Structures are given as structure tokens and as C-alpha cells.
Amino acid sequence: MEKSHENVKAFGWAARDTSGVLSPFNFSRRVTGEKDVQFKVMYCGICHTDLHQLKNEWSNSIYPMVPGHEVVGVVTEIGTKLEKFKIGDKVGVGGLVESCRKCENCDNDLENHCRDQIMTYNGAYTDGTTTYGGYSDIMVTNEHYVVHWPENLPMEAAPLLCAGITIYSPLKYFGLDKPGMHIGVVGLGGLGHMAVKFAKAFGTKVTVISTSLSKKDEAIKHLGADSFLVSRDPDQMQGAVGSLDGIIDTVSVIHPLLPLINLLKTHGKLAMLGAPEKPLELRVFPLLLGRKLVAGSFIGGMKETQEMVDFAAKHSITPDVEVVPMDYVNTTLEHLLKSNVKYRFVLDIGNTLNKN
Fold it and tell me: What pLDDT digit, counting tens, does each position of 141-178 carry?
């Protein structure tokens, strides 16, 4: 397609205020620059972050807001100096659309930790232009922040671009990807079910840790976990003390850490991925005995995100999703708020986003 010299007309759904209610929205994308990829959005995952941002629960929301940072589509236009993509390629965009590219983090493929990173939506470019996300028909993004989407990976697996990399990165970085290791997964939601799938693909033994016995069959029979612990059962937790090489904690509400730390072997690692609103209690002495580590992790850099989707394609790892039409988005967000989803909602943008 010949490159246009005018801003690109775009259409999506946006929230205008803290009610978080979305409605049709006409806006403009920037001209496709020399290193930009323009693509038609086909699918966009709905992340729990979208709920927080839509309602300004983190006190940083910019309205009107077009959410969406798990975006998969097909390239329709490319910049004149583009190197990585061609028209017709399947591509994905996750949580980032820009970073400084000159700091130590960027130099080490850790754009996700760049202090000047620009988020895919609810952010602003250096010229002050607001970033709009994937609840829209097209996107224009610098090629550095776009990943190749493998041909054998369904585009509906868009949540890999947030939930997937959020799990993959700490498993790799903290060395919890070695066959034969025993990994615990706390919480069996959007992140937790992906943690089970990736950990099993790495060849580890997986124990799901949950407050409720009701998820045991799902964890073992459907997702392939090896065992299940009810965290509120003192006998079960005591029987598993010192049995885990690492734990992936996906829970975003206040919960006790000491019982989890006690499950770790010497040199065991507890990776925190959830973000509870209030501080968690962390006793130091249990960390000293066994030289244990409690750490955090946040999505991943672009090189690692590409590595993750390639790994997912090779091992047929996809999130369990419910695909919904665009005009059902407000009802879908209500279901998400009540955790009434197994395990991620994905918007069918390409087939159901119609201009009014």
C-alpha cells in the first residue's frame, strides 16, 4: 500500500471518564513513519489492567482512553526504511510502544524497565500525543516494539503478549525452567493457568497452590498440574514444607507470604507477579534460613517477548480464552470484575468492530 502523508483515521471504543464505560470513538493515528508498521487489528485481549486504568484506580488515567495491550493483527502498510516486516505478516504488540533506546536497560533488551518507556495505551509520546491501544481497528507502531506472530499460533492467543511474557520472563530469569525442578503456582487465573502451561513445557513438576479445593480437578485434569495444595489447610502446607525450587505468585490481593516461603527449598525463589493494593508482610528471618529470595517481575523486553511467542508456537501453548464481539465489551468487563471468566477474554476486533 502506498504510504499516506495524512494522519490515519482510526476507529475504536473508548472510555471518557472514571465510569470506565466504553463507547464508539473516532480518532487519528500518526502517519506511518520510516520505521513504522501499520496493521489491521484482528484480536485484542482484555487484561485486568484495563479495568484499573479505565476506572482511574491507579490515579494516572488519560481520557478519552482506548485500552488494549495484547494486540494481534495483519500488516497493511510499512515504512520506507522498515527491515523486519512486510505487508501481510501477522504481528503482535504488547505493553510497550516506545522506550529511550539509549539507557543501560534498553541496551540489554530490557525495554520493559526503561524509565522512559511509553505504554501502548494511557501513555504519551514525546510530542504529547496520547497513545491508544488495541480496542481499535488499526495501529501504527515502531517496528522495534512489534513481534512476528508465528503462523501456527492462533491469533486469538493474543493474551500471550501480556500474560504469557509476564510468566515466561521470571521462569527463565530466575532459572525455574530446568527439567525436573518442582515449581509452585499460586492462583489459577489468567496468569496462573499460563504459569502451569509454560512450567510444564519446560519439563518441570508443577504444584498449584490455591485457597479453594474447587479448582483441583481443573488444575490437574485440564491444565496438567502434577499436584494441588490448599493453602488454608495447615496439614497440607506443613507436608509440603521445603519441597519447591520456586514459586510463581500471581495473586493481586493481600495474602500471607510466610507459608509460601516455608514451601521453598534452600535457595528457593518466590517471584511476585501480582500487585496488591496494600503492602504485604514480609518476615526476614525465614529468608535467612535457606538463603531464599523474594523478587518481582514485570512483563519482558522485546527480544524475550519474541522468544516467548516462538516457544509458545513450538510447544502449542495457548491461553484458554473466551472470544467476544466488540459491542459486548462493557458486559465482558463486568464479568471480568467478578472473575467470571476462564481464563481470559479476547475481543474479536477484525470481525465485529463496525463503524457507527
Answer: 999 999 999 999 999 999 999 999 999 999 999 999 99
End-to-end CA distance of the chain: 26
**Do residues 91 and 147 touch, judged by C-beta distance below 8 A?**
yes
Q: What are phi and psi of 125, to 5 degrees?
A: -70, 170
CA-based radius of gyration for the chain = 21
For the segment 82-103, what is each residue's pLDDT rounded down to a tens digit? 989 999 999 999 999 999 999 9
Tell me the average pLDDT of the chain.
Answer: 95
Query: Hey, how many other C-beta atoms are within 10 angstroms of the C-beta on 152?
Result: 8
Q: What does the alpha-carbon distance between residue 58 and residue 336 come to, in Å, rounded to a whole number?
A: 18
SS3 235: helix
Q: Give the residue among 242, 257, 254, 296 at the shortest CA–CA distance from 279.
A: 254
Question: Cα 327 to the chain's mean position, in Å?
Answer: 23
| Dist CA 170 CA 224 (whole Å) | 20
- The CA–CA distances, whole Å, from 339 to 67, 265, 284, 332 equal 19, 32, 33, 10
Q: Of 262, 258, 264, which is closest to residue 281 (Cα–Cα)?
A: 258
What is the pLDDT at residue 4?
A: 45
Cell of 267: 535457595
pLDDT at 2 over 50: no
Q: Name which of 38, 305, 303, 315 is nearest 152 in CA terms.
A: 315
The pLDDT, as a whole number, for residue 7 is: 84
Q: Extract the C-alpha cell encoding 10.
A: 482510526
Mean pLDDT of the region 108-132 = 95
Residue 31 or residue 4, greater confidence: 31
Residue 144: which region, alpha, beta or left (left: phi > 0; alpha: psi -120 to 50)?
A: alpha
84 vs 82: CA distance, rounded Å = 6
Give the integer Cα–Cα distance in Å for 161 and 108.
20
Please name which of 29, 220, 296 lies closest in space to residue 137, comparing C-alpha atoms: 29
